[in-house]
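tool_call: predict_structure(chain=1)
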Amino acid sequence: MTMLSYAGEQVRRFDHDRFMTTIFAPPASREHLLALYAFNLEIAKVGEVVSEPLIGKMRLQWWRDALDRLHAGERVAHARGGTPRRRDRGVSPAAGPLDRLIDARRVRS
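tool_result:
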């Protein structure tokens, strides 16, 4: 069995259906898909794991800021695994689709 990245392991554990869809992607694209799926998992659970809406908003802002830094070519450390860089993951500008994904997960007061 091939070792999975942190993103791959998270998607395998918590979104198995999407994990299985990566089998149909070209091998060179699989890790990119897993990174996107893991990002979605991270922001989707924000509203469920925080006790106060302000904390949820802060977490989502951290992701927005991290995307800005990635787009600028900086490394971004994440406590849960790795330090992706833009060239590693093909990260779009935060003003693009990933930013809209964060907007969709806004924590309501």
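agent: The helical segments are 6-14, 16-21, 27-44, 46-49, 53-71, 86-89, 97-104. Proceeding to next step.
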